[in-house]
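Why this split exists: single-chain examples teach little about how molecules sit against one another. For that reason, every record in the complexes split bundles all components of an assembly together and asks for one structure covering all of them. Below is a record exactly as it appears in the raw files.
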Amino acid sequence: EDQVTQSPEALRLQEGESSSLNCSYTVSGLRGLFWYRQDPGKGPEFLFTLYSAGEEKEKERLKATLTKKESFLHITAPKPEDSATYLCAVLGGAQKLVFGQGTRLTINP
Amino acid sequence: EAGVTQFPSHSVIEKGQTVTLRCDPISGHDNLYWYRRVMGKEIKFLLHFVKESKQDESGMPNNRFLAERTGGTYSTLKVQPAELEDSGVYFCASSPRELLNTGELFFGEGSRLTVL
């Protein structure tokens, strides 16, 4: 069974303090790994798709990387508006995403 | 362009009652998905429509849940009779092509269901 584990569950940073979120996965035939951002009371919002080990994607202060066992979401010099829950999900053989529980990120000004 | 809209945003019902959740996908999106997040757990897949056909309903918890997508447009998810463990946030998402091609789902804001 496909499985996704995210760590840490929650992370507090000061504005400008860079860090990384981890997503470990086990899947039969990875077809894609996705990062979403979710704000309170909202639905998940798509950030990145990574398809193969070694691939990297960037968007503003965020960079996602992928290995054969895990993905990292690096956040560089974060701002308070980057506070959100970040979700990782994998796509295996079926047309359905398997999500992790998410990392709740808080950036203090 | 309007996003995925869901109604109601919050529903509070008693155990044994019936609730119907509605989802309007982005116009032109053939693929429609239902997901659910139970408190303290991860978001989990319920089912997938391609137009009006159920492509995959392997995530539906039991036969108290019935999903329809009449005419390939909006979708409804009915829970009858509701149980306490059905409480959670039900998300609808749509995409213009299969996930393999686009990698992106557009989610609605969710319908929060509370069963007392």
